[in-house]
Amino acid sequence: xxxxxxxxxxxxxxxxxxxxxxxxxxxxxxxxxxxxxxxxxxxxxxxxxxxxxxxxxxxxxxxxxxxxxxxxxxxxxxxxxxxxxxx
Length: 87
Fold this sequence. Notes:
Blueprint: H1 9-25, H2 50-54, H3 83-86
């Protein structure tokens, strides 16, 4: 059996959007933000130690703030409709 499958216009639109999303997802560069053109130059320190890196907040730093106390006390539990199913 020979199949003559050709994507319709909506199929081509999905393919085009997928390719565009993948292409734009790779755009950009890793690093800090660019300074404005009239900003004075800043000295960059490149000798970070492991202790300094652990003390900095970040998306991938799971140890940051773990030794700190909670910012707010726990409130009372509010009842929810699905509580009997979840408990």
